[in-house]
Amino acid sequence: MIYPIVAYGDPVLKKAAQEIKKEEFDPKLIDDMFETMYNAGGIGLAAPQIGKSIRLFIADASPLEDETIADFKKVFINPTIIEEFGEDWGYEEGCLSIPGIRGEVIRPSKLKIHYFDEQWNEHTHEFDGMPARIIQHEYDHIEGVLFIEYLSSLRKQLLKTKLLNISKGDVDTRYRMKFSKK
Fold this sequence. Notes:
The chain is α+β, with helices and mostly antiparallel strands.
């Protein structure tokens, strides 16, 4: 099932998500999230972006056509970033919930994360480079943080009208979106 992507302005994107209880979790949601992400042309998707305030995100870097990360396809259930380290580096990020807006975000190049996979196997891994960035971006979503919060005050001011238009539903995308009824 393909979910609509929740647009900027919806309160679900600004609140910290709840931990998932294994016995209450429907694993079909993971397949639905991958289907939704691929339909929208994304490389990562967090549950709040489909209106579910739970600690789950997925990633698949294969659309980036970079052989070094082509096999980076993962599910992160109840993740906790233990440490972020390494050199800070900038990269222009975008977000399915904020279509048409991109901005350079500075993040540490490496991280260590604890999580469960789709079979509820427990992992603690280190990631670096683009996989680390994708994880940091999606992790922010389950913490209620959007990439635009890392942008300068001036840049945010310049984007104010575009963001307002997105929140009102005045945006064109090739995927279905859900807009907040404020």
